[in-house]
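Section 3.1 - Work completed
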Amino acid sequence: MSDEKILAFQLDVPVRWADMDVNGHVNNVRFFTYFECARLAWLQAIRARGERNGQGSVVASATCNYKRPIPYPETVLINLYVSSPGRSSYTTHYDLLSAADNKIQYGNGTAVMVWVDRNTGKSQPLPDYMRAVFDSANATAA
């Protein structure tokens, strides 16, 4: 797999009134929540491909670039991309767009995920079924 980003998953999320802040737009912290929603839905979609055996991924770092405020009402489209994994980590990339007009970008970001043994908290090599997910994404993009 090359270092290019490959679209792996898309998710529409309606903006809730509770997502709003005093400034009349979605609170900046919610951008991370939207990224998380897409990441968890993607992980749920691929989980059937392998056994977890007490292992899983945790967030090592997360970034967000804010492009414009998200109004209410709105439904956002989160595009989740993957790039080449490392030994025990992978990076997810996100575009946060208007579902009604995907030319409107609200933000983008990344999350570096590390595969760990949940009992010890130590990093572990990505299992074969996770590597297969990245190989499949690469084959689909080719």
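Second construct:
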Amino acid sequence: MLYLRSRNLQEDKKTGFKTSEIYNILRYKEMKSIKIGMLALASLIMVSCGNVGHVMNGKALGNAVKSVIGLDKVKSQQLLGDWKYRGPGCAFTSENLLAKAGGEIAAVQIEEKALPYYQQVGISSDNTFISFKEDGSFTSKVAGTPLSGRYTFDEATQKITLKNLLFSVNCYAKKEVGGISILFEANKLLTLLQTISAFSGNKDLQTISDLSKKYDGARIGFDMNK
């Protein structure tokens, strides 16, 4: 290119074009090649983004099934045993309500927002667990505070009722990969935490409760594994 540009304007004997004209033709072809390359790259990016979108939508759809109570039911025998807390849990009572809330991302956001408040209250894998026994009794600790009593489990609705002399509270079981979730209505979780702890006036507890109140059909609680 530089060589062509530095030459005097002479006609090329073979083509009949002046050297400046040859340069312009070559420059045009070069720019055209660059444009074609850029268009090809843009097309590749668009296709890639489309594929990513399909993957993300597929993942969201798969997770949506996991974040709805009762779609993959926990059996009575599966509920039995010792379950240790591993993190906040959240799910919705129907696929429609999950979709209305914004999809799987809504459940994830509630769990993420709940985690620091759980930590402030003192809930950890070391001091929070529940054991369901075959005779209908349960023992548990939440943030180190012991709680025991009787329970009933309805496989059809996945509802667990926990009872003792102090209270009766309903929660729901949801099957998870490698474990289960024990989930509550917002006000029921607040009642449970206030009943078994010295945090009845703690603002963190109220915040935990408020997290799911703005989402119709959301249940919040604990992801557990054995």
